[in-house]
């Protein structure tokens, strides 16, 4: 802390409450900013609104404390949003936080863990078709922050240290841009399906847009419509400002309240219901029927494969993440655009996907494979993924040399070249 700050603190040593240097100075309002990472939604920033411009020269990381988190940056802003600007003053102070280490446990609640042994003993393998699992409440993101240093307003007002301040509101980046809906399927006796839909910003019905269908894992089975948006990046990765600037598109993320496929390769009516939902959106919006893509993780990836088998001409490309299926029925994938990814430590997806792709090769399809090191920087992984792409191949397989079933999708939706390749495909 510099000499000026020490002097300012000395002036306020007798303070017993906020604003003792200036009784008219109110406590700042605090907003929590949540962001979806590979293992789910978490606090990514804290924004303090002081109501009056704060001099940037008086703001340092050491002036603040967010319990349990490391503050990467502290800067002034003229609007309540992340994104450092070269400002001399601003009424907002943004605290950007270091991302917490990702964990497998954060990916998927202990879905059916308590009765796993009993189900195995009874000859049941994996989540039971039609079961409701163990849904968890949506995670509530809040923030606490302490101002530890002295701040100075552009008008000379001093803002002394505070006690613990709690957030009064929360923004959920990317998640907040989805609309929630419920589809009533006239082809299935008006059975319903919850869904989340991202509509491109500045949507123009005079042009056509691609659509990405993302389907979640069994651990995200829930009656909470937005659970699929909170659990990981499978849906939101396609809605970032950077992606949408290059590839404006619709993103559809159904929310299943039951397990819709099982490890015996059976599926429920939700599979067809999801296709019916996509067709309904095709009637309502200007969506390019030649550029509909599907992707999913675990249960969702299994559903993607089942869709590709049953509806081989529906999707332009599929991104299959940490999933498996019966290799005896997957021959239709040989004529489709497929990119699969699994982890070597996944006892289900890795061997199953190997069998599926070996079968496609046996039937004459060209398959290119690579192994990536999960400990490598993302830029390295992206370069390696991009290096495998060639015009004469439409089936690719990425295997992480380590990791688990759940950790696969912590990383899969950061492989930008794969996503770019998906979007380059047309029917």
Question: How would you characterize this protein structure?
Answer:
It is a single chain. By secondary structure, the chain is α/β, with parallel strands linked by helices. The chain is built from 10 helices and 19 strands. It has a 9-stranded mixed beta sheet with strand order 11-12-14-13-15-16-17-19-18, sandwiched between helices. A 5-stranded mixed beta sheet has the order 4-5-2-1-10, with no helix packed on it. It has a 3-stranded antiparallel beta sheet with strand order 3-6-9, with no helix packed on it. Helix 8 (378-388) links the parallel strand 18 (368-372) and strand 19 (395-400). The relative contact order is 0.11.
Run of helices and strands: HEEEEEHEEEEEEEEHHEHEHEEHEHEHH
* Count of helical stretches: 10
What is the CA-based Rg, rounded?
25 Å
> Care to count the β-strands?
19
Overall outline: elongated
Mean pLDDT across residues: 91
Structural class call reads alpha/beta
> Stretches where pLDDT falls below 50 for ≥5 residues?
1-22, 106-116
**Termini gap:** 62 Å
- Mind summarizing the main beta sheet? 9 strands, mixed
* Beta-strand content estimate: 25-35%
Percentage of residues assigned to helices: 10-25%
Strand order, sheet with most strands = 11-12-14-13-15-16-17-19-18
Descriptive terms for the model:
427 residues; alpha/beta; 9-stranded mixed β-sheet; 5-stranded mixed β-sheet; 10 helices
In short:
With 427 residues, this protein is an alpha/beta fold. It has helices spanning 3-11, 116-121, 227-230, 241-246, 270-284, 299-310, 349-362, 378-388, 405-411, 416-423, and strands spanning 29-37, 40-55, 64-65, 71-77, 89-97, 144-147, 151-152, 158-159, 164-166, 169-172, 178-185, 191-198, 209-215, 250-255, 287-297, 317-321, 338-343, 368-372, 395-400.
